[in-house]
């Protein structure tokens, strides 16, 4: 498209990396953003504030960190919830009480990964505007559906289907117990010393 009235869009808009009207709405709220990003292997959550004309990241957590607590570093709903919970606890201990969810160019799916992370942050005590029907059911956020699926399998199928879990010494038949153990460990962590 060309002509005297044609205006070239910003590079990030052309590359479909930034939705500028949505970004402007975030900035007008004057609240820190809980930024949800996912790759094929990991989930990342950041608390980003707009200070003196630029974005500044105050908190950065990755699903890879959950591996040190005995959890999978993958991208399922339970991982997203635990990461959101870890994010929320860090934010609360560093003096943040509220945020808004920024999922970028990800398509929002009710009960999906972004909203599972949101549920974790809400349960940790952060205030984030949301619709209740967007959040996953508690049992799904805890991985009950994975545990029930594993309990219906024989040993050989579990070895094939859940080899990554078994490699991390996680029994998929008792996944909710591991989930609660990791959640308790997050509760006991002190993040204020890293402020």
What does this entry look like structurally?
This protein is an alpha+beta fold. The chain has one domain (15-194): Nucleotidyltransferase, domain 5, CATH 3.30.420. It has 9 helices and 4 strands. The protein has a 4-stranded mixed β-sheet with strand order 3-2-1-4, sandwiched between helices. β2 and β3 form a beta hairpin. The radius of gyration is 19 Å and the shape is globular.
Features:
195 residues; Nucleotidyltransferase, domain 5; four-stranded mixed β-sheet; 9 helices
Brief synopsis:
The chain has 195 residues and is of the alpha+beta class.
Shape verdict: globular
Which topology does CATH recognise?
Answer: Nucleotidyltransferase, domain 5
Strand order of the largest sheet: 3-2-1-4
- Fraction of residues in helices? 40-55%
End-to-end Cα distance, whole Å, is 50 Å
Strand content: 5-15%
- Compute the average pLDDT: 88
Number of domains: 1
User: Which structural category fits the helices and strands?
Assistant: alpha+beta
Estimated radius of gyration = 19 Å
Low-confidence stretches: none
- Biggest sheet overview: 4 strands, mixed
Task: Using the 3D structure, state the CATH architecture.
Answer: 2-Layer Sandwich
Number of strands: 4
Order of helices and strands: HHEEEHEHHHHHH
Helical stretch count? 9
According to CATH, what is the class? Alpha Beta
